[in-house]
Amino acid sequence: MASIPYFLFLKAIIPHLVIFAIYARLQEEGFLSLGCGRAPEWTYPDAWGIQWVSDSGYVSGGTTYNLPNDDAYLPRRTMRLFQGNQSKYCYNLSNNAVRLGAAFLLRVYIRPGQTPPYTPKSANGTMVFKLIVDANEWSTVSVAVNETYDNEAYVRSQGDFISVCLARSTPDGDAPFINTLELRPLPASFSSVQRMSSTNTILTEVQHYNMAPLEVSLISYPPDIADRYWRNIALDDNGPFYKINLSDIRNLTRPEDIDIAPSTLFQDSWKGSPYLSFYWTQLVPSFTFSMQFYFAEIDPQVNSTGARVFNIFINGLQETSFVGPVDVFAAVGANTPYMVSGGADSDQSGTLSVNLTPSVQSLFPSFLAGIEKFTPTRLEPLTSSHIVAAVEALKSALNLTSYTGDPCLPEGYGYEWMNCSSRDSVTAILLSNSRTGGIIPDEIRSLDTLLEIHLDGSDLQGPIPDLSALERLEILDLRNNRLTGPIPATLAALPNLQALYLQNNNLSGQIPPELLRRKQAYSLVFEYSGNQYLSAEVNQSSPFADSSSGSGSISQRTRTIIIVAALVCFVIIIVVLGIVLYVVCKYRAEKAGTKGESGNNLHATQHPPISTFQAVVQGPHKK
Q1: Three-state secondary structure of 295-348
Q2: Largest CA distance in the chain
Q3: Is CATH 2.60.120.260 the classification given to domain 31-186?
Q4: Coil, strand, or helix at residue 428?
Q5: Which of 16, 234, 452, 462 is the most exposed place for a label (fewest CB within 10 A)?
Q6: Which of 262, 260, 135 is nearest to 192 (CA)?
Q7: What is the residue extent of each domain of the chain?
Q8: Distance between alpha carbon 298 and the CA centroid of its chain, in Å?
Q9: How many other C-beta atoms lie within 10 A of the C-beta of residue 55?
Q10: What is the pTM of this model?
Q11: What is the pLDDT of residues 507-527, one digit of tens each?
Q12: 578: how many CB neighbours lie within 10 A of its CB?
């Protein structure tokens, strides 16, 4: 007699042991749970076996706050607030499960508590800011005092880490904050994961619903090995439900049930009378959402094919993308999980209504155990790897490592000291008067689409690197630093360079002659004063040498004055000579006319007139 209870005990406990074993493997391969704003050494194993750690090793910057008089779950009783001026603040999530193409569930929890750390900008007391994952905008957070905001997304890794970022919604908007951040690996067998891969999307605004009485609490880990949060919809506790013991649900790892829904989801099913209806409002209008419906035929009276058959209607139309009509018993038999999935379009007002209607021949009403709704979003590719590598080198060399996440994307949320025209193009570095210190790394030449580099007043040291690859460069401003070494001759070969500012550094050696020639030809604005060890290739005794430079170089202003003065003098000489020539010629012409017409003129002289020239030659007459 004792063997029967023992056998029943094993039958009941083995499925749970299997689930725990699977979970332990998932924990080892990728569960990451961050308490935001916790001290670096903080850890917390919760009652469900999830190990929480501090977020300090995954993010730079921010201020930590405790939530006073808050009775929330312990890891959520602190926050990290980002009040700085960076365009975004990012968590780089990485562990041994994060690799190219792997799928994950991301979950954020945001709660300002009873006393938020700042006064919201909006008049209604709501704090609004952005969530970003990699190069995608994820969601807009809107949360008021003592309210809670949480959100899940399914994402695919594009490398060896995933960036989750928070940002102000406008430059002067509310400062973002966060309480907890979770990463959970998703099995590749999930239909939702396969759909992401085949359509090149991520799934945001993920929602999981348990069609159970209100008395049923949230389902998550350990029943759900992926730690999805299944919330019960606010159904009437006295409404019609099917119920069944957990031990009567069969193994959930069957190939037909590829999304491994938790067994407890199928203990209760909402029963129609005879149909079931529910709806969402304020969705994106005319948008196609992904939906998954979960069933298990747990009514013992349904024991044959055709006994319960129903169709799924979306906004009053039969949804042909779903398998239908639905006959769960015909598909998998009794007490066995079953899932159908497909697309569902919201109408022009942003409403999405669902109706499960039994067929005319059905003997039993429609029913439903659970439902999931996803918002597909195109997966935006990250900034090109060669640009990221160059920017990482620049960050390291210029002490800018607090900037994390994608340097260019999403559009409008790249690093504020860079201009990007696309994921493949950085057009400007804007760090004037930043006082970062450091050196200019050689890797900057990999940013071959640069048009402008402004590193003036950045307290930089070391040499100017070879920038010959930057053929599009138009402006290079390196003045007011502590740069040393020669001016690279390759700068003169940059075909589009229009302005080169090198004043007030410690540069030395000869100025490349071609730079001086381009300056003299007015094809380049070139300033280099304040470099006492710099010299130009001109004769130091030349009257054109610029004695004010302290380096034997000729200033552009002095050279211009000399050239203009010489031109003016030349013009004056030509004009004077022209006037003299004109007067002489006119005088001769007048004299010649006088000789031919002497009879007509009276002269009070005793001798014939003699020309001035003749008088000079002949001198006075001898007596």
Answers
A1: EECCCCCCCCCCCCCEEEEECCEECCCCCCCECHHHHHCCCCEEEEEEEEECCC
A2: 179
A3: yes
A4: strand
A5: 234
A6: 260
A7: 1-29, 31-186, 188-381, 385-537
A8: 48
A9: 24
A10: 0.79
A11: 999 999 999 999 999 999 999
A12: 10
